[in-house]
Amino acid sequence: MNVLNQFIERTQLIQEWIYDAAKLIKSSFEENLDIQQKSNRNDLVTNIDKAVEKQFIEKIHQFFPGERIMGEEGFGDEFQNLDGIVWIIDPIDGTLNFIKQQYDFAIMVAVYEDGIGQAGFIYDVMQDKMYSAHKGKGAYCNKKKLPPVKDLSLKEGLVAISSALMSKEEGLARLVGRASSGVRLIGSAGIETAHVASGQLIGYIAASLAPWDIAAGKIIAEEVGLIYTKMNGSSIDLLQKNPSLVATPTAHKEIIMLLNTKK
Ligand code: IPD
Ligand code: CA
Ligand code: CA
Ligand code: CA
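Structure tokens predicted for Inositol monophosphatase (263 residues):
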């Protein structure tokens, strides 16, 4: 079996695990969450984020022993490099939305091999939309193949920005807002990236995304012809946080030009 088929064969299993995780998340809606603060009052984690991550890790250990796992909540391995097969898990992307809205949050799973994205999954739990992609095989929303994106320019579409970018770099947010059709804020890097991939947005810009915020979305985005880089145009580094930009090729160039004018 070649390497690519090996990752396609994992799809059903991974999606089953994601649907199980979604059930666990939804079953918590009527319960009191145990909420803890991480780096600041807007950086929260719940018992459910932790339980979902542990559930994925248990299953990966059972089915794929020896493969390394990078998880946001710290139950996986430590990483100095991305050699071999690496799972990158964000158990709940949009934890603040999960806590405050019970809406607009996603489960994200990606599988990389020697630093190259092979399979990515973003599940928008409340919309029941499973965005997925395998390297070289296109991207899907549920069973529907996503067409290649139209290469629209900034003025032709809506751009999502992260709330951290809005509060720390309001000058940039204003510039992009003025040059585009408008700015949108959802609060889940995964869902925002999925909406760029499905053509509802033409770009998404975030001040500082962690590897698990990026990993699945980057694979899906690249399969539909989007460009996913750091905000200065250089390659994403999945061993650290990145100021990130994903957009249509034309909007990507335009946003980088705007960033340079700002300096
Ligand atoms: C966060 C969300 C948010 C983005 C933050 C991420 P989390 O992920 O994707 O939209 O602006 O940078 O950390 O912590 O909810 O998994
Ligand atoms: Ca978090
Ligand atoms: Ca996240
Ligand atoms: Ca998370």
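The CA atoms of residues 119 and 166 lie 31 Å apart.
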